[in-house]
Amino acid sequence: MRCSRHDSVLDAIIRNIEERGSTVIRVSNILTPLGVRKPDLIALVGETAYVVDVTVTADCTDMTRPYNEQVEYYKIPAIIEWVSRSFPGKPCRFGAVVLNWRGAIHKSSSDLWNPGVNISKDTILACRVLSYMANMFKHYPKSTKSNLWSGVAQVDAREPRII
Description:
Layout: H1 2-19, E1 23-25, E2 30-32, E3 35-37, E4 41-45, E5 48-57, H2 64-74, H3 77-86, E6 92-100, H4 107-112, H5 119-143
Parallel strand pairs: 5-6
Antiparallel strand pairs: 1-4, 2-3, 4-5
């Protein structure tokens, strides 16, 4: 489900960029001296090429750290060269779309898409994250249910105890 949540957000971003007439490349692998890198998308929006990765973080984290980590992970010369071969003469900008489990989006993620994704699109991304979180919450207890303790007498926590 986590992969589906990620892909759902990514698909919404790609669809929005393509609807505006921009070019999007879903990258398979980029070989670099530091190993293989796979950004979620590289898009030409206006006159700028964007290298972007999508991530969904826990609620208890500062979203600035994962945003900066994603940017630094991809902001290397080998990827800049790859982008310049794909979109010759276009400046390259790096970013990340970082949302948390509650659907909040990092400010830099939202700013990244001007003129791409607007505020109503941010809301759609948040709703996608929340719908997947609701499904994950609903199905998790069912996936971890076990009959391991079915034959063992257990104290019912709802019953009052007399000490």
